[in-house]
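Example record

Each entry pairs one chain with its bound ligand, NAP.
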Amino acid sequence: MLKTVVIVGASKGIGAELMESFASIDGFRVFGFARNMQLQREKWSLNPFVHCLDIDLTSENLQLQILDVLKNEKVDFLINNAGLLVNKPFMELTPSDILESYKVNVLSVFTTIQAILPLMNNQGHIVNISSMGGFQGTMKFAGLAAYSSSKAALVNLTEMLAEEYKHTQLKFNCLCLGAVQTEMLQAAFPGYEAPVQPAEMAEYISDFTRNAWRWMNGKVIPVSLSTP
Ligand SMILES: NC(=O)c1ccc[n+]([C@@H]2O[C@H](COP(=O)([O-])OP(=O)(O)OC[C@H]3O[C@@H](n4cnc5c(N)ncnc54)[C@H](OP(=O)(O)O)[C@@H]3O)[C@@H](O)[C@H]2O)c1
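Structure tokens for the complex follow.
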């Protein structure tokens, strides 16, 4: 029987590799969202099981846009992988920097889950992608106040959802990633070379999403070789 995964933040970096990972598994329908899915759309144009949608997570009618795409679907897995990183000294952060960071990294996750939760199959698994910067007690880096604090909120949201839905078979877990070689890492730490490639991390996340719901719920897991 076909399973359906929704990958949010699927245009590049780890998300693009998640598309690759799920699309290569027989029996999966894959929906990928981001602002600019053109390259992915071209790449998967001959695969009828892969759907690429241009959706801006900061848009006012986000929930309607998601429902418009998924209204007749049953969803098994949702991966909230999108992220926005602003790297600026604290005193230079504008209200817009802070709001945009929270919109992409936290508020859109509320909205996405509110849209998709009613469509989920019984044994669904929602995986939120946070950061070691949002994991309590880890090393912190100057310039990442908006990013890391929003990723910490995502950690807590995951725990809250697991509690609120513990009477169901739905599972909610959060992965706090260490350094992975992507555009985002370069924006935060120019010149740094991460020990993990996006495809390697995507393989881990894909496997975790498909299998870990059997054994864990409400868990916040550091997945990190280095930070950074
Ligand atoms: N790379 C690392 O070292 C690292 C470490 C810790 C955590 N993480 C987390 O891992 C996840 C993936 O990161 P990455 O390194 O692969 O980053 P990336 O290459 O910058 O990709 C970020 C993704 O988020 C999407 N996105 C950003 N703003 C969006 C918006 N307004 N609407 C829709 N989509 C939006 C981007 O698509 P568009 O630009 O096309 O919209 C892109 O697909 C993020 O949550 C990040 O915080 C990464």
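Residues 9-15, 34-36, 56-58, 81-84, 104, 129, 131, 177, 179-180, 182-185, 194, 198 surround NAP (CB under 6 Å).
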